[in-house]
């Protein structure tokens, strides 16, 4: 007779999660490394009761904001390259709704996070409960339904036995390379308290293996045949290369076959900056070298990339005649833009392609041309990053100093605003997998939260083991900064550099470049009482109030000294520096954005004509 264990649903859920394992670098570790939680009436009496008893197995970290703690879980997942997962747990109503943005960030970036939210009563007897949003024509709808468009797996537990089938499916989804993304499970309040006789077998320890799907032989042969026709081939390395752990295989393949490698934002860091086959980042925030190689490429091997518009220059970066081979675990991504689709794991597929190429190599002049272009790109970076007599340093100069002081094992983290373009172009990666720029969702507020999650991840196997270095602007800092306090509370160190340029500088740049006068972006262009002298936030003092070590600096020399001091500190350190809102490293790729068809501004009409020219150069595809 099957043995049973009598537990509440919450106790059973926690017990099950504690018995899930994975392997990283040959070491068996818990699949769920911890839980970020904010408790409310929808989860504090039942879920917290279960979590309190397993603190040594599944540590709970107190969050300050539901969105930011889920973003921290995303930063953790990135650092672990999807091999280990964090949980974010919240109450019902606004707490759950706060996590929707983070769910969208995980969804866009194909990253695993388990989201647990309290829900209304399954029996509906006390309806409407506190924080319940009522739909007059559908009593089954709650705030948690808002997660459905932004997660890969969604379920609502209304009976305690439902977790027996639901939780394994949620985990399988999060670990599937093709479907990887966030999983959401809503927990009805009265269901959390109910007991059930669970099968003992449900709690048996399980070691999960991440599958490596092999490509179809026919598709593989077709890809090899097409690649062998190439005179000017190019490899685009995406985030899937890093998640497949295929960095070394890619480097060996590219060197052996003489094909230059350019990188997407998510793919940056698979190769070091100075690797012989590396030719720079591609696209709108890319390098002149990578974009020149893309423009004249005849066959493009796109590996593990969803070909976002910032990579493709809104599909203007390539010639109309260029042909794509797309290697991806996801059929959806592999079939984009008329590509020859090869659905499979990046590492395994590269091995198989290499085996079938025989003695083929690209014409030697292709790699020589790439090296020449990349050398010129490095000269451009040097020119923009070198110190000058300017009173206010540029982003590029700040990045140059940060890059100089950073240790090879330190991880740079950035996200929305002006930072992504500048760090993607200007950060010279010293060690593989030490770069995290969230630009799939361009989520302001990701940076500091992700720094906390990355710092937690650095304690275990499979990561570089250094210190997260977070770079962000003043606008993003004002949006979400409370995880400075979180990191101080838990003792997880990061270094935060705040570039204070007086508002939303990069979106102001886009606005004015399309002919619209500066409006509501820089503080001096906003509806405020004293636009000529807006109140200044002392970011160092603000962070100091949350327990961080802090400094305000005014020059590049002071920044270098402060960063060296920060490296020696034993706690989270925040450095603030005033930076230039108008100086940027140049880019040479186009971007398709909406520009008014009619306007009273002549500059807008000029921008519209230029935008029409951009659209005329776009490749036709799907």
UniProtKB/TrEMBL annotation:
Q: Which InterPro entries match?
A: DHS-like_NAD/FAD-binding_dom, Myo_inos_IolD, THDP-binding, Thiamin_PyroP_enz_cen_dom, Thiamin_PyroP_enz_TPP-bd_dom, TPP_enz, TPP_enzyme_TPP-bd
In terms of Pfam families, this protein maps to: TPP_enzyme_C (PF02775), TPP_enzyme_M (PF00205), TPP_enzyme_N (PF02776)
- Domain Thiamine pyrophosphate enzyme TPP-binding, which positions? 422-577
- Output the superkingdom of the source species: Bacteria
Q: Which GO terms describe its biological process?
A: inositol catabolic process; isoleucine biosynthetic process; L-valine biosynthetic process
Q: Name one GO cellular component term.
A: acetolactate synthase complex
Q: Does the keyword Hydrolase apply?
A: yes
Question: Where's the Thiamine pyrophosphate enzyme N-terminal TPP-binding domain?
Answer: 35-131
Q: Which GO terms describe its molecular function?
A: acetolactate synthase activity; flavin adenine dinucleotide binding; hydrolase activity, acting on acid carbon-carbon bonds, in ketonic substances; magnesium ion binding; thiamine pyrophosphate binding
Task: Provide the Thiamine pyrophosphate enzyme central domain boundaries.
Answer: 221-350
The record's family statement is: Belongs to the TPP enzyme family.
Name the chain's protein. Answer: 3D-(3,5/4)-trihydroxycyclohexane-1,2-dione hydrolase
Q: Which organism is it from?
A: Thalassospira profundimaris
């Amino acid at each position: 007779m099957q043995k049973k264990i009598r537990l509440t649903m919450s106790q059973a859920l926690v017990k099950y999660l504690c018995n899930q394992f994975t392997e990283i670098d040959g070491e068996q570790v818990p699949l769920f490394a911890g839980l970020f939680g904010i408790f409310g009436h929808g989860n504090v009496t039942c879920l917290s009761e279960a979590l309190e008893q397993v603190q040594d197995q599944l540590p709970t970290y107190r969050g300050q904001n539901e969105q930011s703690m889920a973003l921290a879980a995303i930063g953790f997942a990135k650092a672990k390259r999807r091999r280990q997962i964090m949980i974010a747990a919240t109450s019902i109503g606004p707490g759950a709704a706060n996590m929707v943005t983070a769910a969208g960030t995980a969804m866009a970036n194909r990253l695993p996070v388990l989201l647990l939210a309290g829900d209304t009563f399954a029996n509906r007897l006390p309806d409407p409960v506190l924080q319940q949003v009522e739909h007059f024509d559908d009593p089954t709808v709650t705030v948690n339904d808002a997660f459905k468009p932004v997660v890969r797996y969604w379920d609502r537990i209304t009976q305690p036995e439902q977790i027996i089938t639901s939780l394994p499916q949620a985990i399988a989804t999060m670990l599937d390379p093709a479907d990887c993304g966030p999983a959401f499970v809503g927990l009805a309040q009265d269901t959390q308290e109910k007991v059930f006789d669970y099968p003992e077998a449900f709690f048996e320890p399980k070691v999960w293996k991440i599958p490596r799907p092999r490509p179809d032989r026919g598709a593989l042969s077709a890809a090899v045949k097409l690649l062998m026709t190439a005179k000017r081939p190019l490899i685009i390395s995406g985030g899937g290369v890093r998640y497949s752990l295929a960095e070394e295989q890619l480097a060996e393949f590219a060197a052996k076959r003489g094909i230059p490698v350019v990188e997407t934002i998510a793919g940056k860091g698979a190769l070091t900056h100075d690797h012989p086959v590396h030719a720079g980042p591609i696209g709108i925030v890319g390098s002149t070298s990578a974009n020149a190689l893309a423009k004249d490429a005849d066959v493009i091997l796109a590996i593990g990339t969803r070909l976002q518009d910032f990579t493709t220059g809104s599909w203007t970066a390539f010639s109309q005649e260029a042909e794509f081979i797309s290697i991806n675990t996801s059929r959806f991504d592999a079939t984009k833009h008329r590509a020859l689709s090869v659905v499979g794991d990046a590492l395994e597929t590269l091995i198989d392609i290499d085996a079938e190429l025989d003695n083929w190599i690209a014409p030697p002049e292709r790699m020589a041309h790439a090296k020449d272009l990349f050398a010129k790109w490095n000269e451009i970076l040097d020119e923009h990053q070198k110190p000058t007599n300017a009173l206010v340093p540029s982003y590029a100069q700040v990045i140059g100093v940060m890059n100089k002081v950073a240790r090879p094992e330190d991880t740079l983290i950035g996200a929305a605003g002006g930072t992504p373009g500048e760090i993607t172009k200007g950060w010279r990666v010293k060690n593989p997998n030490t770069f995290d720029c969230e630009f799939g969702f361009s989520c302001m507020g990701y940076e500091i939260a992700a720094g906390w999650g990355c710092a937690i991840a650095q304690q275990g196997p499979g990561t570089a083991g250094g210190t997260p270095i977070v770079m962000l602007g003043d606008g993003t800092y004002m949006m979400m900064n409370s995880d400075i306090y979180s990191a101080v509370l838990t003792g997880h160190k990061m270094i935060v550099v705040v570039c204070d340029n007086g508002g939303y500088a990069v979106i102001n740049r886009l606005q004015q470049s399309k002919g619209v006068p500066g409006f509501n972006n820089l503080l001096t262009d906003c509806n405020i009482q004293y636009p000529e002298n807006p109140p200044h936030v002392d970011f160092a003092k603000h962070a100091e109030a949350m327990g961080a070590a802090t400094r305000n600096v005014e020059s590049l020399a002071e920044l270098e000294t402060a960063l060296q001091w920060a490296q020696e500190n034993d706690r989270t350190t925040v450095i603030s520096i005033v930076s230039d809102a108008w100086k940027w490293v140049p880019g040479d790729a186009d971007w398709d954005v909406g520009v008014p068809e009619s306007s009273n501004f002549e500059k807008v009409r000029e921008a519209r004509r230029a935008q029409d020219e951009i659209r005329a150069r776009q490749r036709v595809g799907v």
